[in-house]
């Protein structure tokens, strides 16, 4: 029991440590914060208020929706109260029996607020109504109706914009949680897998990567976030992917690759982050979106390959088995890229090792006076 709790605690702390050291989380969020921003720069967010509202959380959108309508109802309620008060329509003003009010049924602040709400929302219960004897009241009802329509259009557009954000489409595109390194077509490749969970296509899909690491220049300058381009490709090329089914994307580890100096026993000791981007346009909405994920060294498996996910059924239809999407199998792989390219016979180096032809097999006979343990 205690051992199980301790294991869970260590696993939780390890996940928290990995989360803090990532620049991009597995679901694509950027783990970065800004400091020492000048106060005047915050007004730039108010100037670009539409983007600020669209990117706000849903609870703030609902709060703004409720507060905007309630505040305008109350402000116009005060204006209606001021009009009927100046006309002597209120109950405590004791209007004469032949008095003509500006608004029927408004005799106090509460009824003025209710009339403002009914006017802006076009409810019209029939108890309170405007009379044509007050020009100021006619002008105010016109202004409130136009302003209410503008507010409704703005809020509806804001909600629709948030619902149709392209990043929601990105939720239905999934990357494999692990990357693998294995030989493929006489090349040593780093491979990842990506799937589109919807039947609608992603048009013009392009995938690329950035390797983030800390480097030191020849002048002694330390670059905390040095970015190196990582090219990915499928068998048909790297441009305009036909993203109708899960794809396995490959990065060839050659002498120009930053992974060329990495070996199986040094991979997990490296300090880097591989960020993978997928750009495309949704077929159904024509909205451009970007999907991101990242892999740290412990999420790259050396000497493994993905299981196939596409098969053909008996009725001659293609079938995608998502149960094999993240499953891998061990394959014979050289223990480093240098060995794969330069040492003959290492193209299919097993993970358990390989016999060295330079050694001779000799028999050692046990001496009679040897000490047995």
From TrEMBL:
It is a multi-pass membrane protein. One of its GO terms (cellular component) is plasma membrane. It is found in: Cell membrane; Membrane. Its main location: membrane. Keywords: Cell membrane, Ion channel, Ion transport, Membrane, Potassium, Potassium transport, Transmembrane, Transmembrane helix, Transport, Voltage-gated channel. Residues 24-166 form the Potassium channel inwardly rectifying transmembrane domain. This is Potassium inwardly rectifying channel subfamily J member 1a, tandem duplicate 6. It comes from Astatotilapia calliptera (Eastern happy).
